[in-house]
Amino acid sequence: MTTINTSNDQDNDELFEHHAFTVDKGQTPLRIDKYLMNRIENATRNKIQAAAKDGSIYVNDVQVKQNYKVKPFDNIRVLFEHPPYEYLLTPEDIPLDIVYEDDELLVINKPAGMVVHPGHGNYSGTLINALVFHFENLPNNSSERPGLVHRIDKDTSGLLVVAKTEQAMTHLSKQFFNKTSEREYVALVWGNVEADEGTIEGHIGRHPKNRLQNTVFEGDDADKGKPAVTHYKVIERLGYVTLVSCKLETGRTHQIRVHMKHIGHTLFNDERYGGERILKGTTFSKYKQFVENCFKILPRQALHAKTLGFKHPKTGAQLSFDSPIPDDMQQCIEKWRHYATHMQ
What we know:
Blueprint: E1 3-5, E2 14-22, E3 30-31, H1 32-37, H2 45-53, E4 57-59, E5 62-63, E6 69-70, E7 75-80, E8 98-101, E9 105-110, H3 127-134, E10 157-163, H4 166-177, E11 182-190, E12 197-201, E13 203-206, E14 214-217, E15 229-238, E16 241-248, H5 255-262, H6 285-297, E17 303-311, E18 318-322, H7 327-343
Parallel strand pairs: 10-17
Antiparallel strand pairs: 1-2, 2-7, 3-6, 4-5, 4-7, 8-9, 9-10, 11-16, 11-17, 12-15, 13-14, 15-16, 17-18
């Protein structure tokens, strides 16, 4: 977290940096309120315009209004008088589904819809708000987030390990970094995945035009992303969708969502990556109604962190955990299974 001292003869205030961006070299002129809307999650144009009106948006250390047009290499910063809310961790009495716990760690089954850590637009109701209520003196990770060894997306359900001691944090983080932990996800994806199994390798980094997405960079552009490897295996083919198992060798943000889209199989109902549209199937209105009913049953991306394995940081014993597919996803799979049977 960056602070700026703006003291002069009249005041002694500090401004806290909430967001910072450097404009890409290929950027065409674009109003700064539109530019920031594509880069700040959950930000509305009204909020951005209000921030500009209040003098909170700086370009190259100069305050600008909402109609300023960004240019290549502009340095944009959004500064407020209060620190980012993610640093203000308020304990909240939120129940946790604890699968396993001892003195060193705990394993939690996170429901879909729960954000793992506070961030822009999500300052309460997160897993960390719950953790700091239920547990004292959790060790911070390198991002100053108590207990977190790894994370899963808000609308992904499933297993997470949380460190309760410094030793556990160091040991578990090393296992994830060295790719010795075991993580298997179950996903429902659009289309018929033809190969029974395969490996997707592709560097993952921020999408150059939509900063809320990640994308795969290849060839000469590979250095714009970080190496990522996903191993997948078909569990069941269900007509216009496929149920797959994905094992992570690396843990990049949105890795499965990005990699599966990259090979032409976007996750079912993954709104951020275009999976909330009908990507495969017929033009019949009955089919459209069927898919929309599936979206209502499963109002999120069809992704569940099903299994998690690692060595205990103190005893060295191999621990493995399994989480059943939650009801919303299971009901959606059953509907597709029934549909696929009647397609034949």
